[in-house]
Structures are given as C-alpha cells and as structure tokens.
C-alpha cells in the first residue's frame, strides 16, 4: 500500500496554512524556497535600498541607531556592521526548557515566511540559509522563556540569529553540537548578518506564531475526540441520543454546535431504532455536550484567521518599502492577535477538560451511571470488594482538569512595562501560547483517562445488555480493544494512559470527515 506524501512546503509570496506548518514541524514535509527571478529581485531590492541609505548616511532605526530606548543613540557608519552581532549577543539570556524539535521547526518556518514578504530588508542568502536549516533539520537550541511578546520574540529568536551566524548550539542528527562545527561539516560559511538582518530575524512574532500553529492543530483534533468520547459515554451511561436531534439544533443554529450534534447523531445512529429509554433528560455533561464543544467549533475559524494572517505577514520593524524608497517605522512586532487567540484557546480547552472530567465522574459513580459497577470495575463478585477499577484514574483526571482550569488566566492582561519604558505595553503572546500548549497537554490527559473509562463502560454495558453498536462506535471500540484490554482485576494503568496519550498526540484515530 502506498502512502500519500505531503507536497513540499514552498516559502514565498503564496500564503501558508496552519496545516502546512504542522506537517513540516512533524517532519512530514520537505521545504522549498520560491526561486523565480521576480521574487529574488524583490527580496534583493530591499537590501539594496538599505545600502543606498547607508551611503547617504540616512537615519534608520536599528541600523544606524541603537535598539529600543537607545534609538536616540547614533551609531557611526564604521560600527554599523558590528551592530547586528551585538543585538543577538546581548539577547542570549533565555532560560527555561528548550523548545522541542517540532516547535523549533515551526518557529523557523514562521520566521522564514514572514521575511519572504519582501519588506524586511534582508538578502536572499539569509532566506536560503533559513530554508537550508529546515531542509537539513538543523535546529537551534531555543530556551522557551524570556519573551514578553513585543518587540516580538527577541530573546528566543536571538538563538536563530546566532546559530545562522555560526554561534551557540544546534540539534543536528540527534546530537547537540556547536553551530560552527555543523557549518564546517557541511562546508557552509556562517552568515555575517548585514545591517537590519539580526533585527529582521529577531523583531517578530515567530515563536508565538509557530507554537500557535501547533496548538491549533491539537485543539482541532481534541474537539473531534471529545465528541467521539461523548458518544461512547452516551452508550456507556444508557443515555438519550434524542438530545442531539437535528430539529432541536435547527432552533438554535450556531454552526459549530450544529456540527458537533451532527457528529453525535452520526456516531449514535440516531435515526436507527434505539433501546427503551429510562429517562427524558440526561445530565448536562451529556445533554449539553454540543453546546460546550460547539463554542470551540465555532471559535476555531476565528482563531485560524488570526494565526494565519500573522503567519503570512511582515511583523518586524522597521519595514522597508523599496519600491517607494521609504522606511516605515511601526509596531508590527506586537503579538496581540496571537495572544488573544491563545488566551481564548486556553478557555476553550479548559471547558473541554471540565466536560470530560464530569462525564468520567458520572461513569464511576453508581448513583449516576445507571447500573454500571462501582468505579467501572470488571471484577467478578468473588473479588469485587478488593477491586477499585478506575477510582484513581478519576482522581487523576480531576487533578489535571483543575490545573488546566487554573491555567486559563489570560496572559495578555499581565503586560509589563520593560526596557526603560520603551516597551511599555507588550502582548505576552508567547507566554499565552506556551500556556495554551500546557492546557492542551493536561486536557489530552483528561481525554485519555475518559476515553479508556468510556471504552470500559461500553464493554461493561454490552456485556450485560448485548446489542450491536452503531458502526462508527463499533469500529472505535474494536480499535481501542486492540491496545487496551478490559480492566477486570486491578492493574496499574499508567502505561496504558501513556500509550493512549501517544495515540492522541499522533492523531491516530480517524474522526469524522
């Protein structure tokens, strides 16, 4: 069987999608740089215009002046060439964990696509080297902490600028090595960054945007998975599938809410004969699942717009309009749209965690699970009193949910005046993006716990009340059974939870068209 290989991601004038960045970040796509003469000439013209201004001794922020509040300090022409190295050098103060390889690739992709807009005043050679880093999988070792999200991701992106220049460390072929050593091995000359090039590399939103692409992809899959888990729990809890009737949702037609209800109807074969119902209304975590998940479904389109516009924009300062021969000083490095998108995503994801945690609480509780054994234990009567099934898993899920909810505080509201009050209002977009990824990590753990519990609940329900599952759920139940045996006698479930997490993060199960 042949597998479809994604097309190469082409950096240039055509916009990129979140999916292209994620495919590249996961190592599934090759990369190319647009190579036609018109594109190359447009890039070159910006650098040439900058050189002409230097010949005329024009005043350009970050080129013939210091940085930030030091913009009033003139830099003599004989020091202009040294200024870029000083910029990435004094910003080499990042701390915290290092970005993982996928995140680093996403960052490089976001920075390269921004510079390809042709208004940053950089050489084509810089774009080619950035693309070569992606092509050869040379990954700067980037500490994730130290950015306030304006003037862009200065400190983390300094590690990109420095490694392109043959300094600091990179991950290459599984080993952390000096950038200079890798350049020598490949017979490459490290770049000597030209005036404005270090600023163009660093003064932008590439870290928060790259992380936002990864977060969006995970959230999109989590939405579908939470819908599938809900369907399994309707079966396990002998719920009422009529809660998802198409006519009901036509009366309140939020598109995302209607989509989630349609997925549930599909999973539950709502138009087919159903077992006799014992109650009219299920508890909210089942009955209102489309309303909870529908908010995320309706919001993802707006978040996509914010992320993809940022991804395909010039977001450094100043911008170079070579056609009109103007230098435009502004604030496109401000990451407010990404900050809002990621703060919003934390809220949306936290609500998914809370929903699934409540469903799991119903599953394990004999007061509410409509005849399932306590804690979903599959033990026979002779050993039922010493078996506790999913009791501790539910406790763990509650802990992960609480942390995800605590993490929902919007980072963008914590702007801090920095850099001698030049950066007096900042976005905190990178912190928001890191928070969003942490919330996703925690909520995926809740999803893994609830998915295994739901599958156990379905197994128990069918054991006692045999019937044919609707086709989508029967296939999911079969796939889960190949990895996760029913819990009869107590066993430590950590290994299975971790395997389930791997499956979730690899988007292993195909969920809805």
TrEMBL record:
- Keywords, in A-Z order: Lyase
Q: Which SUPFAM superfamilies match?
A: L-aspartase-like
Top-level EC class, please? lyase
Q: Which reaction does it catalyse?
A: L-tyrosine = (E)-4-coumarate + NH4(+)
In terms of CDD domains, this protein maps to: PAL-HAL
Q: GO biological process: what's one of them?
A: secondary metabolite biosynthetic process
InterPro entries, per the entry: Aromatic_Lyase, Fumarase/histidase_N, L-Aspartase-like, Phe/His_NH3-lyase_AS
Q: List each coiled-coil range.
A: none
EC identifiers of the protein = 4.3.1.23
Q: Which PROSITE patterns match?
A: PAL_HISTIDASE (PS00488)
One MF term in the entry's GO annotations: tyrosine ammonia-lyase activity
Q: Which residues cross the membrane?
A: none
PANTHER family xref list: HISTIDINE AMMONIA-LYASE
What is this protein's name?
Answer: tyrosine ammonia-lyase
